[in-house]
Amino acid sequence: MQTSKYSLVADNVIDAQSFLSQTLRHGDTLDVFDSEKIEKISEDIAAIAHKLITMKVADLSNQAELRTQTQTGISLTSLGLEYASKGNLDKAVRILNVNPSVKLYQIGNTLINQVREKAIDLLENAVIRPEESLSHLDIDSIRIYNHAEAKFLDELVSYNSTISSASVILKENHPPRPFLSLADVEIIKIQLGYIEKRRDYVETLPLEDVFAIDPPLNITIDPILILTLCLMSNLTLYYQPDLHLDHDTLKDFREIIYDENTGEVRSAPRQRMLDWIVDYLKQDNRSDDLIKFAVIYWETCIQEIIDPDENIQMFLQ
Fold this sequence. Notes:
Strand order of the largest sheet: 1-2
Number of helices: 13
Order of helices and strands: HHHHHHEEHHHHEEHHH
Structural class: mainly alpha
Helix content: 55-70%
Strand content: under 5%
Number of strands: 4
């Protein structure tokens, strides 16, 4: 039960699931924090929030943005406390009792900046850029991530998470929320790793004519998923590693690999495709790690065409 001491700090901006909130409750149960310490913790958190607001909020009448920056300060302080204590609540109470909260915030900020920098790099550089010879044309780069992944990266840069688990292809995400624990950070690292490996995989593809594809690839339909499915289709039907988009070819490919009676992928064409990408990458002297990811990614793409969402369905009509 929250006591009056705890309620001085545990305002509604502190998520009850956060490690900081758990530590405050635990310390309150142990009667470790006196009123002076509780006030100091509150002042430290207020100072952190004020610094973030000063740095990042142009319109101080924007209450939503003020709350966002306050929550970011609390979230990073909580992560720093969890990291410093290795998740042990008794140790966390001792740490919080003898250290200024700003030190814990700095630890959390360092942890998150490591993943934020990766997100920023992916947003800027995880793209297929047109060659200089096409610079006179109004051609956009092709991003190697889809809409849900773009949202994930954007929110990560803003100190938020949109996922509860990692996926080889991220299809949906949740409303943005602050980081609640180091487990959030680990999930984010895995998701970033999937996107980074996809970037490495894309660099191996025969992309010479990718900007001649009509209609052009766009982020809504997951461009790399579509490219991979088209590569699979052309390999299966025409024995050529072609990226040309063709609805009929994609439909014919689905009929070949998918058995409507059993509801399963036919093993022979599936194995031929996986053997091709393995051999292709080996001939290009790619690492075992990248080959392993490419096989997992192709398996995931195959499943997408078997159980297509509305964006894939449009290519099968």
